[in-house]
């Protein structure tokens, strides 16, 4: 019963096999290998963006921080949700890689920004000229840190606000596949056609060992990204092993199959939890993360049975009256099984 994070899952067998298959002979390094070239073309095709620049890195934090660095100046503000991963879980990497940009936090329900809140935050910034940080960029996460998703129309409404102030927009897509299979739309519709300038396209949480693609829809920003990636220590020398993962991930729509399974398991889990006495969902379940509150006694039973997941916030205590509900996050993955879900639910009940 492993629900702590999709970061704890292993590597999908197709991806591991692709790594072994790529381990033959000598190939050009630093991205000059043929596997990388093929992956770049495949992602351009998937996103209907033949001019896009595509780069591979090994972590989502690197993808996000380097994306921000090419979208804003050090004196610029990065407008993001209060619970954005770039705010809560990247140890200041975006601030570091941008040379000091300030994250300006925007509230909104279920970890989603709304146009009015974003507009108010941007308008309030740089109101006193040189004395303030300037307006830099916007970053939004899809699927969000609360397991919710933005529709293409919601993305377009936020990027329209950004455009009012001539700001570029980044999408943290560490769980983009999970959002896309729920939306059922084409990748382009919820990215560049909705006004996104740069996408962090995640692979690691959805079955890869460690690979993320940064897709820059305006190639004018490409060279600066290359320089920043190398200078930041994120240009892999044996780049073929990043490309092999991504190639297998995209091949035959594996990325969609893996995400569809993870989401289906989350839906099963959420439905079961909703039927547990004293339990309630704290965010809508729209991707592969379930946020729910249930009585301490249920938490204690699940933990005693060996279930792994985080109370959310982390720092709550299992000690205390059994009937008190505590909130938690449970994350399902490409290899979560129905039996795992049903056993966990039985312990909760
Ligand atoms: C929404 C989101 N973005 C970015 C990241 C960063 O990925 P990494 O931990 O590979 O740096 C994570 C990590 O799980 C995440 O949940
Ligand atoms: C750090 C933690 O938030 C991680 N990104 C996760 O989603 O599990």
Automatic annotation (TrEMBL):
Cofactor(s) needed, names only, are: pyridoxal 5'-phosphate
Hey, which family's this protein in? Belongs to the threonine aldolase family.
Query: Which superkingdom is the protein from?
Result: Bacteria
> What does it do?
Catalyzes the cleavage of L-allo-threonine and L-threonine to glycine and acetaldehyde.
Q: Name one GO biological process term.
A: L-threonine catabolic process
Q: Which Gene3D superfamilies match?
A: Aspartate Aminotransferase, domain 1, Type I PLP-dependent aspartate aminotransferase-like (Major domain)
Q: Name all Aromatic amino acid beta-eliminating lyase/threonine aldolase domain ranges.
A: 3-292
Which protein, by its recorded name, is this? L-threonine aldolase
Binding partners and assembly: Homotetramer.
The record's Pfam families line, in alphabetical order, gives: Beta_elim_lyase
Question: Which species is this UniProt entry from?
Answer: Rhodobacter viridis
User: What Gene Ontology molecular-function terms does this entry list?
Assistant: L-allo-threonine aldolase activity
């Amino acid at each position: 019963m492993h629900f702590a994070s999709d970061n704890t899952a292993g590597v999908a067998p197709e991806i591991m096999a692709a790594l072994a298959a790529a381990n033959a002979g000598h190939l050009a390094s630093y991205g000059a290998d043929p596997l990388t070239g093929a992956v770049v073309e495949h992602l351009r095709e998937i996103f209907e963006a033949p001019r896009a620049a595509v780069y591979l890195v090994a972590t989502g934090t690197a993808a996000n921080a380097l994306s921000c660095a090419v979208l804003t100046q050090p004196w610029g503000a990065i407008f993001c949700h209060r619970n954005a991963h770039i705010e809560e879980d990247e140890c200041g990497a975006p601030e570091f890689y941008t040379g000091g940009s300030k994250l300006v936090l925007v509230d909104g329900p279920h970890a989603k920004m709304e146009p009015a809140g974003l507009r108010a935050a941007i308008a309030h910034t740089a109101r006193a000229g040189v004395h303030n940080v300037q307006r830099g960029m916007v970053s939004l996460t899809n699927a969000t840190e609360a397991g919710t998703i933005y529709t293409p129309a919601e993305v377009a409404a936020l990027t329209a606000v950004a455009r009012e102030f001539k700001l570029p927009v980044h999408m943290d897509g560490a769980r983009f596949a999970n959002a896309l299979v729920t939306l059922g739309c084409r990748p382009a519709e919820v990215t560049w056609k909705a006004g996104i300038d740069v996408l962090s396209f995640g692979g690691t949480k959805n079955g890869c060992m460690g690979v993320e693609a940064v897709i820059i829809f305006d190639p004018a920003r490409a060279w600066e990204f290359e320089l920043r990636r190398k200078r930041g220590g994120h240009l892999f020398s044996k780049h073929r092993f990043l490309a092999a993962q991504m190639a297998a991930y995209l091949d035959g729509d594996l990325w969609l199959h893996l995400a569809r399974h993870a989401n289906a398991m989350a839906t099963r889990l959420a439905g079961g939890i909703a039927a547990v006495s004293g339990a309630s969902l704290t965010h809508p379940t729209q991707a592969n993360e379930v946020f729910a509150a249930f009585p301490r006694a249920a938490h204690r039973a699940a933990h005693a049975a060996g279930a792994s997941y985080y109370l959310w916030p982390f720092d709550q205590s299992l000690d205390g009256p059994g009937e008190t509900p505590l909130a938690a996050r449970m994350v399902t993955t490409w290899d979560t099984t129905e039996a795992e879900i049903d056993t966990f639910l039985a312990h909760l009940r």
